[in-house]
Every structure is written in structure tokens, then in C-alpha cells.
Amino acid sequence: MRNRASELGAGLPPGADSDAIRSVAHEPILVTQPVLPPLEDLLPSLQEIWDSKVLTNGGPFHQRFETALTEYLGVEHISLFTNCTIGLVTALQALDIQGEVITSPYSFVATAHALLWNRITPKFVDIDPHTLNIDPERIEAAITASTTAIMAIHCYGHPCDVEAIERIAHKHGLKVIYDAAHAFGVRLPAGNLLKHGDLSVLSFHATKVFNTFEGGAIVSPDAQTKLYVDQLKNFGFVDDVTVVTPGINGKMSEFNAALGLLQLKDVDRAIDRRREIDRRYRDMLGAVEGIECVGFSGEALANHAYFPILVRPGYPMTRDALYHALRDNGVLVRRYFYPLISSFPMYSQLASSREENLPVATEAAAQVICLPIHPALRDDQVERVVSLIASARRRP
Ligand code: T4K
Q: What is the pTM of this model?
């Protein structure tokens, strides 16, 4: 059997680089790693929770974290959630979305599952080849009498073409929900990304730029919508004897909120380190034939949540060969987002799931690899990843 690990690194000239790679060959490099505060910094908050015995249901940490987040994110109305997926399900309920919703197949499966959980039919449209976000030009042709909304994803934290999407939504009377799971801290040159659309939903999962272990939030445009979202995430209660809507339990606990409050202090530094890593990758991979870095380059407005590359036909190996070779060398890269959501069995029968409807997404899913990026990633590890990619040899 062919030794994939030896195919990478075999093309390196003898010397420091190849020696370094060989010496760290089995140190695993994770695609991401959560940022955590020093444990002792969290202990006073834990003590407060233990003393008060208020563990959940909108306690003091929940309220403080919610306020701190509105300030950090520059939005007025935010509702904390147990995770982004429940946030997406609730957002659809809050806007009373039914029928068909236009969305992208190039995302984490939770985006479309939130639709199915509401018995809404996803209508997949293709993506833009540069941003890998939903292509606004494809949306209009997919609108039918049953279409009620657009669910767009700021994939990898790269902003959607919000102006174009909202023009179409306005013209056709559609709601817009942004799956902003990847978009914490992303800024637009003008305005606030999270103020676009009817609702935006964030994720604070362990693998995200900003984490509360598990967690998420819905950004609402006004106090009335936030109030309804808050009722929906608390079983529909408005007071202890009145239930106005069939809500769910989407509440964030005091532990997660206390952690979030602390995490906010360091998130800018974490994003700055991600930006440095992004720049290093782009500088070094720019010269590698057949490797294309996705998204916008190290500009100050991005959060650098992911570092996706596309392995084009000009590269000496296929995407999957590179993926396995990197993993065999301890670089635990991931293929976000392969397979396409539209290919999973609960979606594949839909007419919009046909491959010929989704050529750009199909190609991206076949070529993408997300490289390791997180604040604890060292420069020598970035160099090792790049050296492995740059040293691949074409198979005879
Ligand atoms: N919408 C979009 C566009 C999303 O990407 C997601 C989630 C959602 C909605 C839903 O958000 P949440 O409901 O989760 O808030 C991960 C995450 O579980 C998922 O949150 C995320 N997107 C998705 C893209 O990736 P996996 O299966 O790749 O994670 P896992 O466990 O393999 O972790 C990846 C690496 O991270 C590991 O190699 C090691 C490291 N890791 C991970 C965890 C969980 C740690 O070091 N510590 C940890 O605790 O799904």
C-alpha cells in the first residue's frame, strides 16, 4: 500500500525544514482548539453561582453577559441561547416561517435541519465561487409561490452579499435569517453585519472564534421581537402562569454565561492572532500551484474563523489524497463542508438537490480543506502545514 505520509515531505530539500518536519511528525495539529481563560479567573464566578444557587432561568450572569454582548457586538437586542441550532429553529418560529426557504447546501447540516425541524422545505441554490456564500443571482429564479424566506450563511465568517439579498427579499416580500454561526466579531466597512436581515443567529460552540463551551444567540432588530424570542426560548411563558406560545427550552445556563463574560475580555487578542496566522498561510501558500485560499485576505474586519483552501486540478494530488496525507502526518484538517447538505438522505430527493443545480457548491465541496487555525497554533506548526502541502509530489 502506498504510504501517503511519505508522499508529503519527500519533495523537501534536505536541511532544516525537512528535519523539523521529521522531528515533529507525530505531534498532532488540530484544526481548531478552544480558547479558555485561566481557570482561577473563573473561580470567583463559580463561587458566586454556588453561593446563590441560581443556575439558570435568566439569572444575574445571563443578564450581565447579554448586556456585555450587545456592547461588544454593537447591537441593541440579543437573546442568549443554549446553542446556535436551537437558535435557528427558534428564529424560524419567531418569524412564523412556513412553506419553502431558499438556502445554501454549502454549510454545516444544522442550517437545513433547523428548517426540517419546522417542517419547512429547503430550496437549495448554488453559491458564489469566490465567497462560497449563497449566490444572490440564483435566488430570484428559485422563488415560488411557497417561498417565504431566505436563510443565508456567512460561511467561514465571510459576509454574504447582504445588500443584494435584502433587495431581492424586499422585492418579493421574503424574510431573511442569517446563520451567523461563524460570524462573531466580523465587521463590515459600513454598518453592522448582525443588523442585516430580520434575525441573525450566532454560535458560541467550543470550535468557534468565541466559545461558551456550548452556546448561541439571536440578534433581533427591536425590543418587541427580542421579547417574543425570549418567550419562545422559555417554553412560551410570559409570567409564571401564562403561556402564550408553544416555546422550547433554549435558555443559556449561568455557567455558560459566566464563562462568556470572561471570554469577552480576550476575544480581540484571539482574533488578532488568527489574523497573523491567516496572513502567514496566504503569504506562504500563494506560491503553491493549484492551491487557492478562499475569502478575503487578512483585513482587519474579518474574524478568521476558518482557513479554507481549494485544491484545484493544478495541484499534484487530489483533495482527498492531500487530506489523508496531512492527517497521516498528524495535521488533523477537516473537509468543511463536504458532503453537501443536499446529498444527505433527508435532502437528496428534493429537486433543488440535483448536482446540476449546484455545480459551484459541488466543486467546492470536492476541493475544500480547512487548515488548522486557532490562537494557540504556533508559527512553526503553520510552517509545517505549509511545507507538507508545498512538498507534495505528483503520483507517477
Ligand atoms: N450553522 C453553521 C454554519 C455551523 O457551522 C454550525 C456548527 C451551526 C449552525 C450549529 O451551531 P451549534 O448548534 O453547534 O452552536 C463542529 C461543531 O460541532 C459545530 O458546532 C460546527 N458548526 C461545525 C462546523 O463543526 P465537528 O464535528 O467538526 O467538531 P469536532 O468535535 O470534530 O471538533 C473539531 C476539532 O476541534 C477537534 O479536532 C478538536 C477540537 N475540539 C473540539 C471540541 C468539541 C476541541 O479541542 N475541544 C472541543 O471541545 O463539528
A: 0.94
